[in-house]
Amino acid sequence: MAGRVVVIGGGIGGLGTACLLGRSGYEVTLLEKNERVGGRANLLEDVGFRWDMGPSWYLMPDVFEAFFDLLGEKVGDHLRLRRLSPSYRIFFEDGDVVDMTGDLEADAETFERYEPGAGARLREYLRLSEYQYQVAMSQFVPRNYDSIFEFFNPMLLLKGSSLHVFERMEDYVSRYFSHPKLRKIIQYTLVFLGSSPYTTPALYNIMSHVDFNLGVWYPEGGIYEIVRVLERLARESGVEIVTSCPAEAIVVEGGRVSGVSTSRGFYRADVVVSNADVYHTETRLLPPRYRSYSERYWRRRTLAPSAFIIYLGVRGELPQLLHHNLYFCEDWRTNFAQIFDRPEYPRNPSVYVCCPSRTDPSVSPAGHENLFVLVPIAPGLPDNDEIRRSYAARVLGLLSEKLDIPDLRERVVVQHTFSRRDFEERYNSYRGSALGLAHTLSQSAVFRPSNRSRKVRGLFYVGANTNPGIGMPMCLISAELAWRRVVYGK
Fold first, then answer.
1. Could you report the per-residue pLDDT of 175-223, keeping only the tens digit for each?
2. In what order do the strands lie in the sheet containing 97-100?
3. Do 190 and 177 have their domain in common?
4. Does residue 431 sit within a domain?
5. Which domain holds residue 159?
6. What is the pTM of this model?
7. Same domain membership, residue 417 and residue 339
8. What are the beta bridge partners of residue 309?
9. 420 with 377: CB under 8 angstroms?
10. Long-range contacts from 133-139, C-beta under 8 angstroms, 24+ separation
11. Domain count, the chain
């Protein structure tokens, strides 16, 4: 055998790393704190309803295909994917409703209705976005960085201006579109990065290529099917998966990992890969002298939002909704400020509503709809039962009015909430962030925490808080990068 590996945490990154290492001949044990694997991509079931608890968008199918290729597998042999068309519906505060279809001609016509010439500018914007995506994904994203000089290389100097690395998204998008609704449509994807258009580098306009050109997909059965597939492939690769087994300490001897202590015993390891949040790994699992990042470092980080989530089972059909729905408040700047600058529960929030039962009847009983309602909120906000009851009532009232479902609250047959304290308790998330470190310029690429410990030999990190960042596709790339570190040392 090539060696013994313990993976801490069975999120997408941890499962992906375990699959790759198992198929590379390592003896791998994956330790998962909770009762099932999946991390934030988890599952909730109640009275015939089945909710994906976290990620609900299947984006960047090319990344999934590349990862499965590494395993010698084909996505189509494991997942039945359906491209959604329309991709999503947007409800504006003034009552305007618009569908984005994923068909460039139709979407260009929609843009033209709001602003003369915007259709042609959308085509040009997406042409450049596709080019920037190809450059980023071939040259910058799937790379391990050991120093700032590896990032600021001749290729970046050559391509940096075309990627708009040092420009803000808000400024970049404003050069193409004047109408505030069009700018919101273009920039909403930053939510997937846990960031604000006022601080995110324009490099991330590549998300428009992901949205409009690559399309929005749905795996039959729901997002948790991805987790089931990765778990099965991991077991087939010889990985031992131990659930309900939280790690208590990473044991270090002579500056090198020797294993992981848990309430169920000690697991010896030559290599440890932690899919737990880097903050939790460093401050709870390692002795102080072996931490790569200080408390001061973490206090100065910009966290992605937490989330106030309501899982609803609703009686009757909701033809007003598509699979994916977005409500955009009028005053975006105030909404983002309440998340990033002066933390408070947004008084008039933007809201995401997923209704997967419009696509997949298996996720709810016959004659019912399944709703996942998410409001981005600041991390670290107070969170108790009374706040949840009050804020859930506010959000459902808003949706009743703005999504034209006047009897929504009367039709609810089951309701669960999940918010900041759940992210902390269930996923050991720093300050209850739903996603981890936001994608600001100072927290992208080489500026994110390294996936290799500076202080402990044989300790590696994988997941959203290390390179390349947030989202299921990025976590799969992170798994590949961690695998390269372990197997090839680079």
1. 999 999 999 999 998 877 788 888 888 888 899 999 999 999 999 999 9
2. 97-100, 88-92, 324-328, 351-354, 368-377, 306-315, 412-418
3. yes
4. no
5. 105-208
6. 0.95
7. yes
8. 374, 418
9. yes
10. 133/206, 133/209, 133/210, 135/159, 135/162, 135/163, 136/163, 136/203, 136/206, 137/62, 137/206
11. 3
